[in-house]
Design brief:
Arc Repressor Mutant, subunit A, 2 domains, transcription, RNA_pol_sigma-70-like, RNA_pol_sigma70_r4_t2, sigma factor activity
Length: 177
């Protein structure tokens, strides 16, 4: 009966009741959002839950038992997470746009510049080279690089900074020669 009355109060605009309902179902929201594997999943489920509280027809509950309310809300959250899964995970279709103007764009590095960059990178120690390639060519974050290489995030940052310093020195040496 307690949940039914909380729903009644929440529908009439009582913020405290809405917050209490949210905290009662927050663990279920978190669990379902973790299974969706996209950043805004918890936010989307929370918004859907709050809209559900505002719009639910309380006449659906014949007896005002907590079990009936809990089952109904949990079923709603599960169904909503399935909808979000379909929308965000299954609905995402990677596509490639072919733009002919790119074929003639001179800002795209030529084969000579790629060879130059890889020759320059080959002067670095292996760790610095791997970190710089993963960071700037493959766009990994420091945390992802650390995980891949089995080192700390600070070690990644240190290797990146040392590698950039070594590349600067090599470029300056090339300019002088």
């Amino acid at each position: 009966m307690e949940l039914y009355f909380l729903l009644q109060k929440a529908q009439s605009g009582n913020e405290e009741s809405t917050i209490n309902l949210f905290f009662k179902f927050h663990p279920a929201i978190k669990k379902l959002s973790r299974n969706l594997h996209y950043e805004e999943a918890e936010t989307d489920l929370t918004i859907a839950f709050l809209e559900f509280i505002r719009n639910i027809d309380l006449n659906l509950f014949s007896n005002h038992s907590d079990g009936q309310v809990v089952n109904f809300i949990c079923k709603f959250l599960k169904n909503k997470s399935v909808d979000l899964f379909r929308k965000h995970v299954l609905g995402f279709k990677p596509s490639v746009e072919v733009n002919d103007s790119l074929l003639y764009d001179h800002s795209i590095p030529s084969l000579d510049s790629e060879i130059f960059v890889y020759t320059l990178l080959s002067t670095l120690p292996q760790l610095q080279r791997e970190v710089i390639i993963k960071k700037f060519i493959h766009s990994f974050t420091d945390r992802e690089i650390a995980k891949l290489l089995g080192i700390s995030r600070q070690a990644v940052n240190r290797a990146k900074n040392r590698g950039l310093k070594n590349l600067r020195k090599a470029l300056e040496k090339d300019k002088i020669s």
